[in-house]
What does this fold into?
Amino acid sequence: MLFVYSVFCSIGTQSKKSMRSYILAESNWKDLREEQIQIAILPWGATEAHNYHLPYATDNFEAESIAAEAARLAWEKGVKAMVLPTVPFGVNTGQDDIAFCMNLNPSTQLAILRDLITVLDRQGVHKLLVVNGHGGNEFKPLLRQLGLEFPRMFLVMTNFFQIGNRSDFFEEKGDHADKMETSLLLHLRPELVRPLEEAGPGTEKRSKIRGIREGWAWSERKWSQVSADTGIGNPKKATSEKGEKYFNDVSGKLGQLIVDLAAVDINDRYE
Ligand SMILES: [Zn+2]
It folds into this structure.
């Protein structure tokens, strides 16, 4: 019943106004108490400056929209996936002197994940996919630790910006408020993007330390030193068309991942 309803509602313009059965925030207990959800999806973003032209919730809009579209595609293939509300704060330890860059420490993220996984584990939803939208969030060590604590859980994460080959869509390099993120926001939330002539160039200063420059040594970037406008990567040639193509590519691949995760036997996942 739910499946039929959802497919019906995803056709035509109704879809934007109807309840989406795969989005927890839009669901109700009447439908959900009878439902067997196979996999929970947790979008996780950040609240931070994105050059002069993109909104603070850029990473949240990205992770949430891509997760929702992927879940819709999976639902159309009969997979009962449920997208949890997006966690809007990320690790922003390197932006402590930039206004309203809100920070959750990794240890806080571990505590949040542990509490949410406790609920899922107790209720028999043993698959969780974290869809990350922010480079400072590093979920691998957290999921390693929680995997030991919750042996019945299958914990998976993906960084949406590493799904698919970004350079097929965007020539210029960048990783923050760049052409990719600006194109995505022009597609997803154009009303929140300031005119691109107001954007800074997103120039990244080079480290004075050779090992860090070459990428084989690492230190967290001090954001107020590395970029004058908080951007890394030139956003000037961004377009909503490029954003839409990239969005569809990434969402399609993520949708297939959800289908594959739902199908796999947790105790027999190698061939
Ligand atoms: Zn971002």
